[in-house]
Design a protein that fits this description.
Subcellular location: Cytoplasm
Oligomer: single chain
CATH architecture of the largest domain: 3-Layer(aba) Sandwich
Family: Belongs to the methyltransferase superfamily.
CATH class of the largest domain: Alpha Beta
Radius of gyration: 18 Å
Main location: cytoplasm
Helix content: 40-55%
Number of strands: 6
Keywords: Cytoplasm, Methyltransferase, S-adenosyl-L-methionine, Transferase
GO molecular function, one term: RNA methyltransferase activity
Number of domains: 2
């Protein structure tokens, strides 16, 4: 739903229609939408009102082979080596919890190398604590890396520092916070 709403917004399409016979219909816009959850991807593929312009694919972005195959073949279809923009919504915490500080750094470096612009929505540290608490309440062990994370605290600020310092990206705009208290940060 977020990807379809984003597509409509970028083309200036009205929410009530799935038709491309509107003012911005001549623009060439293609979205590749990835998620690790195959059920979400299947549902998105079945419900997409723009199947020729929006591709949905299951991808564990931290699986180097899978990501190189998928992203490489997708970009090659358009004669491109990178994306104009990447949207990373509510993903950083899960990468960080499951792959540690090293995984987060690798992920942010990868994103920076894949695009000209990056819009990222980092989850605040309180979300990390809440996720760990939910896991413990279910009687399961903590995330493997939770207690050893040295990158912590103000995650929007930490991610901004990493992208600026280590990935040579520039913060263009902070669009404020979502209703879930998550910053929306645009980098170039």
């Amino acid at each position: 739903e977020l990807s379809v709403a984003l597509y409509r917004h970028l083309l200036g399409l009205q929410q009530s229609t799935d038709s491309l016979a509107q003012p911005a219909a001549g623009k060439d816009l293609h979205l590749l939408c990835c998620d690790i959850d195959p059920e979400l991807i299947e549902r998105a593929q079945q419900c997409s009102p723009f199947p020729t312009s929006m591709s949905f694919a299951k991808l564990d972005i931290m699986d180097r082979g899978a990501r190189e195959r998928l992203l490489g073949s997708y970009l090659a279809r358009f004669g491109r080596s990178s994306f104009d923009i990447v949207f990373c919504m509510s993903v950083t915490m899960w990468i960080h919890l499951n792959h540690g500080d090293r995984g987060l750094l690798e992920f942010l470096s990868l994103l920076a190398s894949l695009c000209r612009y990056l819009l990222i929505e980092p989850q605040p540290w309180k979300c990390y604590r809440a996720a760990a608490r939910r896991l413990r309440r279910l009687g399961r062990n903590d995330f493997d890396h939770f207690r050893s994370l040295e990158i912590n605290g103000d995650m929007a600020e930490r991610i901004t520092q990493i992208l600026s310092r280590d990935c040579a990206m520039e913060l263009v705009c902070c669009f404020g916070s979502t209703s879930w208290d998550r910053s929306l940060l645009l980098f170039k």
